[in-house]
Design goal:
The complex is a heterodimer. By secondary structure, chain A is an all-beta fold. Chain A contains no helices and eleven strands. Chain B contains no helices and eleven strands. In chain B, strand 9 and strand 10 form a beta hairpin.
């Protein structure tokens, strides 16, 4: 149980185009999902908190117009990288808390490797 | 806010040796901590949570309030334990990851 499915697993796009990444909770409802970015051999950096039915909360330094987050249902959050540039190339990971309590833990998607050429 | 420090970026041991991945926290209050693990080409997964006092895959972690530590230990390391390990505090409903420790277990 408590599986988060993330698609696509990898994507290559041209500079200037937009890319959408989906994150679905398969067997539970997630009012809150989280989006992270991970550079090679580095830790995860929290980008934003996605809230179902309301605006996302972005971490300091993250451009909200660049990284559009939509959380339209209790099982789906999307991250759209708009007007992508090579520096946006990275590994993007979503996460959701599967229980009601913070101590229940968080489950993570398998990640999306974005390459902008 | 809770803060943790993992002083070792890389820890290398031989198979069968004991392993201890250090995690120190600074927090004025009751700490709430997880250990997460990321194996090569796999998604992050929860390994331990401090409130459970459980043993997963032979790993244990005890909260030591006197030393403000939550070190992850295993008496006999296995090659399959090679991975990135993150000690993560949870508060304000989100997880903030530090630099983590890469564990390499050699045969």
């Amino acid at each position: 149980g408590a599986v988060v499915s993330q698609h696509p697993s990898w994507v290559i796009c041209k500079s200037g185009t937009s890319v959408k990444i989906e994150c679905r909770s398969l067997d539970f409802q997630a009012t809150t999902m989280f989006w992270y970015r991970q550079f090679p051999k580095q830790s995860l950096m929290l980008m934003a908190t996605s809230n179902e039915g309301s605006k996302a909360t972005y971490e300091q330094g993250v451009e909200k117009d660049k990284f559009l987050i939509n959380h339209a249902s209790l099982t789906l959050s999307t991250l759209t990288v708009t007007s992508a540039h090579p520096e946006d190339s990275s590994f993007y990971i979503c996460s959701a808390r599967w229980g009601d309590r913070v101590s229940d833990g968080y489950t993570f998607g398998s990640g999306t490797r974005l390459t902008v050429v | 806010a809770q803060r943790v420090t993992q002083p070792e970026k890389l820890l290398s041991v031989f198979k069968g040796a004991p392993v201890e991945l250090k995690c120190n926290y600074s927090y004025s209050g009751s700490p709430e901590l997880f250990w997460y693990v990321q194996y090569s080409r796999q998604r992050l997964q929860l390994l331990l949570r401090h409130i459970s006092r459980e043993s997963i895959k032979g790993f244990t972690a005890d909260l030591n309030k006197g030393e403000t530590s939550f070190h992850l230990k295993k008496p006999f390391a296995q090659e399959e334990d090679s991975a990135m390990y993150y000690c993560v505090p949870y508060n304000t409903d989100k997880l903030i990851f530090g630099t983590g420790t890469r564990l390499q277990v050699f045969p």
